[in-house]
Amino acid sequence: MSETICLIRGDGIGPEVTSSAVRVVAAAGVDVEWVELPAGASALNEHGQALPERTVAAIMGHKVCLKGPLATPIGGGFVSVNVQLRRRLGLYAAVRPVRNLPGVPSRFDDVELVVIRENTEGLYSGLEHEVVPGVVESLKVATLSACTRIARWAFEYTESRGRKKVTVFHKANIMKMSDGLFIRCASKIHEAFYPDIEYEELIIDNGCMHLVADPGRFDVLLMENLYGDLVSDLCAGLVGGLGVVPAGNIVDDCAVFEPVHGSAPNIAGKGVANPLACIMSAAMMLNHMGQTAAAERIKTAYNAVLTDGDPALRTPDIGGRGTTDSFTQAMVAALG
Ligand code: NAD
Q1: Which of 65, 91, 280, 282 fits a disulfide with 86 by CB distance 3.0 to 4.6 angstroms?
Q2: Does the active-site annotation cover 124?
Q3: Is the minimum distance from the CB of 249 to ligand 1 under 6 angstroms?
Q4: pTM, full prediction
Q5: Contact yes or no for 157/250 (Cβ under 8 A)
Q6: H or E segment at 158?
């Protein structure tokens, strides 16, 4: 039976890496009807809107989407389409697995952690204003309901995956009310429902020091929106960079999968973007849809291509001299 999946190709390297993932999903034997949807800077140029209403409606209807990165103007311009999409679709939980891959050079060899990021609140609420000329305020929002639901989601995820420990990163020594609420909710959910899971709270600056010194001590990391954004990229650096870290934004009735990286304008159109993060996001998506055998085939294929170690196949960001296309072709060949 054919699966219907929404597809946002994205900006910059988005079309290159999503095309690769689409080819790999087909090679894994999944029959997909892709519903292509406009969003981002390209949609603004072509449709006059960065996030057309029909894009939101289609994802709500089909419930699953694979998304390339979307560019956001800096210091002005339209509101981030990523933020808008997550808010409009109620995608409050982002899950970003970070692990070593065979043959990908990195400083550590024992990284096997997951970052869970609250996706809808914090400083991403977009509530900024100028009080008087020269003075601006940006509001950090935390609500009991959103802090509680992300804590529940994180513990449920931890338990369902057989993971053992949740560490919350916070700055409640300074943001006593907002981050204070975040850790109170996490601690309450832990005590009430998941006492057998190990629980730890770390002030985020200390947490980052521990991450770069000994990432193997972490299992599941839970944090609010901005910290999750920053720590995701930091963690990507522990395992070979942004080209190898996937993400899912998942709630009960809707899910959008995307690489953690952005549109990488510095390499867009050069054919050297690493498609692996997008391919891994597609594998997460297939798992989410119950296509677990196909997801496993994709995982086995990229492990095999990476283990092979041929630098002509892999992209430069992970020590190769290949291209997006050479890696994709190697994946297709490995999938037989
Ligand atoms: P970026 O992630 O696009 O790039 C950071 C660095 O990593 C660059 O050197 C880039 O070349 C490299 N890189 C990223 N992905 C790569 C890949 N697949 N293969 C090889 N190298 C890769 O971050 P940025 O430059 O800070 O942001 C560029 C744009 O992307 C901005 O407009 C930003 O708002 C947007 N962005 C979007 C998302 C998203 O859509 N989820 C996430 C982050 C940033």
Answers
A1: 91
A2: yes
A3: no
A4: 0.97
A5: no
A6: helix 144-160
